[in-house]
Every structure is written in C-alpha cells, then in structure tokens.
Amino acid sequence: MRIRNIWFAVAAFVAIVLFSVVSSDAASQKESFAAKVNGAGIKKTTLDAAVNNFIENQKMFGTTVKEEEKDKLKKDILNELVSAELLYQASQKEGIGDLSKDVDSQLENIKKGFGSDQEFQKVLKERGIEAKDLKEDIKKGVSINAYLEKNVFSKLSPVTEDEKKQEYETNKDKLNVPDETKASHILIKVDEKATPEEKRSAKEKIEALRTRAMSGEDFAKLAKENSEDGSASNGGDLSYFRKGQMVKPFEDAAFGLEKDQISPVVETQFGYHVIKVTDKKAAHTLTYDEVSKDIEKFLINNRKRDEVNKTVEALKKKAKIEIL
What we know:
Largest sheet: 4 strands, antiparallel
C-alpha cells in the first residue's frame, strides 16, 4: 500500500484538505494530539479523519485497504501531515502575502466538483469536516505552494529533449496500453442502509432517466441535471479508463458496450448507474510524440518531489517534532 509522497501532497493540497488537515495551537486546545510540530498540534481526530478519507477514496477505485496495512498507512499519513505543517510554518515566516483570491478560487473549484452545493455540504457532513476548517486547509495549501514556487521550484533547471528521449527509451516496454473505454454515467446514490422502499424509489428514478436517454435526450445534459456523482458538472464524463480501474459491475458493463451504446441499469455499492460509452481505444504502444509532454511533466515532478523532500528534511533538522 502506497500513499502519495509529500510532493504530491502539497502540489494537490485540495485533495489533502478533504482529510480535514487542521493543526492548532496545543496550548489553546484540550484535545489529544497525534503529533506536535514546533508547538502546533496535529489532532488525533484529524489523523483519523485523514486515514478514513483515504480508505473511502480507495473504495471508489475498487480497492480495499487491508487491516494489516492500516498501521503503516496511519504512520505514512501522519508523516505527511507533519511535513505539510513544517512547510506551512516556513511559508508563514516567509510572509507570502495576500492569497485570499487564490483561496476563494480553489474553494469554488472544489464545490464545482461535487455537482451542487447540497452534495458538497452532504460530503462535508459525512466526513465530519467544518466549512471553516476546509477553508483554513485550502489557505495552508495555497501558502505552501506559493512558498515552494518562490523558494524551490523557481531554481530548477528545465528538462532537455535528450532527457525526455532517454526516459522514453528506458521505459518503452512499459508503454503498452491495454484496451481503454471512455464513458459517461448518471448515478443515483443508494445508501448501504437504505430501506427497500428507498432502493425501489432510486431504481425507478434511474430507469426513468435511462428511458429519456434511450429516447434521444442529451445524455450529458441529463447527467448534469440529475446525476448524484461529482462528475455531474462535466456531464457525467469519466474520461478513459482501463480494466481494473473501476468497480467490477461498472467495468463489466462499460467494456461490454460499443461506442455510443447506453447500458441497462447497473447496480454497484454506490447506487444505480446508467452508462454511455463515448469512445474506445484498442491496445497499443504509445509513441514518443504521444507521451513527450507527459514525460516532461513526470521528470519535472520528480525534480520537484526530490527538492521538496530535501526542503522538508532540512526543516525537520531545525524543528521540534513530537510524535505522541
């Protein structure tokens, strides 16, 4: 079981904020802490929320975190929270400036990803996250990224064409892409504890939506207006995926369809789906031109990751860190 390293944690802090990563002044709180970083406490409740959130996110991709993996996962996530706190403290000493517009922009982007404000508020409630804490976490992420851009990333050398080609040749045998399907879906959620009547109501709703789609109504519009998945804002578009990336009932249905076909109603642990396949790609080996930009991003991210790790290690040497 691997979780994102610290570079990906800070580069996409909007994902980490859904862990409810909030540190607080240990002297002003009576809660128990998992760690203290230069006196700032990382709550045990925050760590638990982070672990639970990671486990729930894995379920969305059909992966179950095994019981024997949870202790290591908890240690890894705590290490990331400590690293993020160190970087945030460094950004505050630096005096980054007013980042309120960036914070508001990121918060709006997060909300859009849930399709509606109602769904957004529901997820926050389910995960025990206060809106004010979420905004504080976004502020931390924006501050960290601004600090890294100014003090770390601006000093990196560009990736050369020779480096990209060498990376391509070295990993050419790994660039065999299996069959891929691009699909959109409409989801009507069904809670695990739903009553038979609630399940029946959800099934009737999705069946009615399928009938409308089959009669020629615009699928993307139907998804945008009715789907209860975060992809609703994009018309239900899930982009391309391979076998093993979706839960099995969904995957089996999607790969069994031809382009532009619409599935029968599919039931998964999330509820009821109607799927429309919008494109298919046969297995092939990616050419250099196809992956050149991705290779460049990969090499740049590797450099950034290494430099962030060095920065964190340097901060750790000067910091007082207590794992409680």
